[in-house]
Amino acid sequence: MKIGIAGLEHETVSFWPGVTDLEEFERNAVHGPDVITKRRGTNTSIGGFIDVLEPAGVDLFPVCDAPGGATATVADRVYDFYVGEMKREFSKVASELDGILLFLHGATRTQSLQDTETHIVNEVRSVVGYKMPVMVALDLHGNLDPNILNEATAIFGYQSSPHVDAGETGRRAARAMLATLKNEIKPTTVMAKPGVVVPSVFSATTVSPARDLITRLHEWEKLPGVVDVSVFFGFSWSDVHQLGMSTVAVTNNDPKLAREIVDDLAKLAWEKRRFLTGRGGSLHSVKRGVALAIEKAKTAKKPIVILDHADRTNDTTWVLQELLAQRAQNVALPLLCDPKSARICNEVGVGKTVEIKVGARTGWRDGGPVKVKGKVLWAGEGKYTGTGPMRKNQEIKLGPTAIIKTNGIWLQLTTYEHSLIDEDPITQFGYETSDFDIIVSKSKTHFRAVYEKVAEEIIIVDAPGQCPADLSEFQYKNVPPGVYPITRRD
Q1: Number of DSSP helices (H) and strands (E) in the chain, helices first
Q2: Containing domain of residue 387, as a range?
């Protein structure tokens, strides 16, 4: 048995000026046999494919895996490069392949394509035909068009945000592939679109209301004949016609049951739409959130976490400015992406004092650079192997990195973008999270896998960054009528 494997992932902020080009993907991309060696044992969907298929004695045919971040619209040449590679390589062995497993994000938009993932599967189909099973693992934040079901035999989404189950999602897809090839199941996949757009900060499945949907999902999975169930919460800041939530069920040749499942989950999503879109009032202004963190830190036994969820570039300075204005002390602000400042600190060296302007390198909704003066505590190449639940065994490259102490703030400056979703950016540099009274994360939900235990309390601020919870900040042109809260309000 021979199964092809490939991946291309990006979460596109279509309002972000400019494009994300090929160089950004190639920095972390792997090709050919490296897909297996680099992804084996990792909490990634492709790692999950490998976990199931290798012990089963399957001959793997890896093509590529190109993970992107959450940045501007993807350049067409990125699509052409990787999809061209998939088509070229799969066509060479099309007669030998029994199936193909793909990992695609679900919220990729290119310069020319809104529904990118459907096009990718269609292009793969163009070289292997429609008799071969092609199954797709997807991120929980995918914006899906039902047309993808005309191309994919079945689709499988993360069931957790934080995405601690990325590997398990790959294993779910691989197990279904093997069962299909052994004629144990005949997958039938159905989708519903409840018409709700969820800002990512409200998609955390460890807390309600998103948790309620996942709980219902797991109840449906217990029924005989159910192969898999997914709830996709969508990615709010991509202006595409398929924007918003999707509910998906895969059954063993039972379309009626699949329809019942997806309609029930879609109905529940619609009932909870106000809380899924932040109408419950759970966010603070930056000023109020910082003041609250400072006050609570006085008596807290563990760090208070300030979540600056709207920052997609990991360089906005709204929270830093307020921390300085309110004279906050013993604060850790890791992973502020600023290549120029990181380079300057490395040139000056550890133990020396620097006076630099930090942050706001993109010039888009970033708060502007902030002048700081402080002592360089650490400088060097930021590179380590991840130990957290999402990045375990993955090679993390921060590039030239520096840590400075400025006015009571431990400030980490990096060359490449990463978000604080585990303790590694602090502990791998010789510190402990418990050393600090306040820690700032620019994650959305992923930090919860670790910091719900590390933190005494989490305070969420809605800064005016690139992806605020208030979607009225942007003008959507492609979203159809009836999508709440963008084109339908009640």
Answers
A1: 14, 17
A2: 286-468
